[in-house]
Specification:
The protein has a single domain, classed as Rossmann fold (3-Layer(aba) Sandwich). It has nine helices and ten strands. The protein starts with a strand and ends in an 8-residue tail after the last helix. 38% of the residues lie in helices and 21% in strands.
C-alpha cells in the first residue's frame, strides 16, 4: 500500500509505522519503505532520514536501510530541490528494484510518499507513476484541522483522476486545540467512498506502536 497525505506534516510517518505494527499484530509480515526522503543527516553508514529510520524500526523483518530509503537527500526541502542541490537524478528503476527486494521479505510493503499527493518525487516524476508501476492501493492520511474536508476531497479526487485506487483513509489529530474532530471525521467519512481505517490521537511524542491500536484493518 502507498501512504499519502492531504499535506506535509499531517502524520504520514506515524500512520505508516502504525500500519506496520497493526499488520504485524494481525499476523502479517510487513516492512516499510520511504522511496525518496529529504532532510537527512550524515552518519557513519551514510545519510539517514528520521522518517525512514522509524519505518525500518517498525518493520519485521528488519530490512536494509538502502532498500527502505533508496534516495536519501540531505536538504530539508521539497525532494525536487533537494535532488537538484545534491546533484542526484531520482529514477523509478532503483525504486522498483528496492520494492521488489522488500516484497520478498514480507507479506506487505507499506510505502510512504512525500508531502501531499501532487508533490512530485522528482522533476517530471509524479507519485502516481510509482503507484501505478507498483500496482498498489493508496491510503490517505487526513490531517484533522480547519480546511481538512476540502483537502481530503481534493486529494481523493486527484488520486482517482490519476488512475489510482484509494482504499481507505486515516484521520490524524495534528492540532491539540482542534475541538471538532468527531464532527469532521463524520463529514469526511460521508464524503469519501472508502472506509476510515482509524483516527490517530494527538501525540506530543509520536508512538507508532500505541497509535496502531487506533487502527482497524480489513486483514
Amino acid at each position: 500500500m502507498y501512504v499519502t497525505g492531504t499535506d506535509t506534516g499531517v502524520g504520514k510517518t506515524l500512520a505508516s509505522a502504525a500500519l506496520l505494527y497493526a499488520l504485524r499484530a494481525g499476523g502479517r509480515g510487513a516492512v516499510g519503505m520511504k522511496p525518496v526522503a529529504s532532510g537527512c543527516e550524515p552518519g557513519a553508514d551514510g545519510w539517514r532520514n528520521a522518517d525512514a529510520l522509524a519505518l525500518q524500526v517498525a518493520s519485521d523483518p528488519r530490512p536494509p536501510y538502502a532498500d527502505v530509503n533508496p534516495y536519501a537527500l540531505p536538504a530539508a526541502t521539497a525532494p525536487q530541490l533537494a535532488a537538484r542541490e545534491a546533484g542526484i537524478e531520482v529514477a523509478i528503476g532503483p525504486l522498483l528494484a528496492a520494492h521488489a527486494r522488500l516484497a520478498t521479505l514480507a507479506d506487505l510493503v507499506v510505502v510512504e510518499g512525500v508531502g501531499g499527493w501532487l508533490a512530485p518525487l522528482a522533476d517530471g516524476f509524479e507519485q502516481s507513476a510509482l503507484v501505478q508501476a507498483l500496482e498498489i492501493d493508496v491510503v490517505l492520511v487526513v490531517g484533522l484541522r480547519l480546511g481538512c474536508l476540502n483537502h481530503a476531497r481534493l486529494s481523493a479526487r486527484a488520486i482517482a483522476d490519476d488512475g489510482c485506487r484509494l482504499a481507505g483513509w486515516i484521520g490524524s489529530a495534528v492540532d491539540p486545540e482542534f475541538e471538532r474532530i468527531e464532527g469532521y471525521v463524520q463529514l469526511i467519512g460521508a464524503a469519501l467512498p472508502v472506509p476510515c481505517l482509524g483516527v490517530l490521537p494527538y501525540m506530543a511524542r509520536p508512538d507508532a506502536a500505541r497509535a496502531a491500536r487506533a487502527l482497524t484493518l480489513p486483514l
